[in-house]
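Researcher: Let's do a round of design. I'm pasting the structure tokens now; please hold your answer until I've finished.
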């Protein structure tokens, strides 16, 4: 699987250029992996993504002792609702901000506002970015994540116009289904709707049915950009 690598701001990434000629600004997809993983993980979907798009898969900034990388630490000694190190998540959000700033301002060819695709921690960060910087992106897809309110307690006023799509497995034993169910409802109360899909037989992952639903949503978003 061919790809190039570079550093965007302070984040290492791998990427591929469009596989066909594009007139004008090209579609752009930004992939954010989950806790303990790496940039190659979601890049495995590259062949299923639009051939006219740039695809960038970012590596989270924190190195874990057990291997892999994270957008923020998890403190397993605390109650589950207090696991997330929000201070580190805010730093990662700034790293993501700097990476997108470079792409939108200084990349070698013009890009459309990106679509974020995040899994687990990457979904949590993608959600937070969409709520803080909705005008920078075309939308965000959130696989097996949730809204971490402490990270973005007050969404940007324009966040209600930023398309958010989400999926979660009813069999997820890593992030309980009750978390996205509650937190996406909390977002709705803040006038930020989430197109939320629950898959009864799916665990903590991305199965073909969820990816197919995401693909339909993504193509609608790219067609309207």
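Researcher: That's everything. Go ahead.
Model: Designed sequence:
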């Amino acid at each position: 699987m061919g790809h190039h690598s570079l550093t965007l701001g302070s984040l290492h990434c791998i990427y591929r250029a469009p596989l066909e000629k594009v007139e004008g600004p090209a579609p752009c997809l930004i992939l954010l992996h989950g806790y303990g993983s790496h940039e190659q993980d979601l890049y495995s979907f590259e062949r299923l993504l639009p051939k006219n798009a740039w695809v960038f898969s970012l590596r989270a900034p924190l190195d874990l002792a057990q291997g892999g990388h994270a957008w923020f630490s998890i403190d397993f000694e605390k109650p589950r609702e207090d696991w997330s190190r929000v201070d580190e998540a805010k730093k990662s959000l700034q790293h993501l901000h700097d990476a997108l700033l470079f792409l939108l301002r200084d990349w070698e060819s013009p890009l459309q506002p990106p679509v974020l695709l995040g899994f687990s921690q990457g979904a949590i960060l993608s959600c937070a970015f969409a709520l803080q910087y909705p005008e920078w992106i075309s939308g965000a897809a959130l696989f097996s994540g949730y809204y971490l309110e402490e990270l973005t307690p007050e969404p940007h006023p324009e966040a209600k116009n930023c398309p958010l799509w989400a999926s979660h497995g009813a069999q997820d034993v890593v992030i309980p289904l009750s978390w996205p169910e509650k937190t996406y409802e909390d977002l709705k109360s803040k006038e930020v709707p989430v197109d939320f899909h629950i898959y009864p037989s799916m665990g903590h992952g991305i199965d073909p049915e969820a990816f197919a639903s995401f693909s339909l949503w993504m193509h609608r978003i790219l067609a309207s950009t």
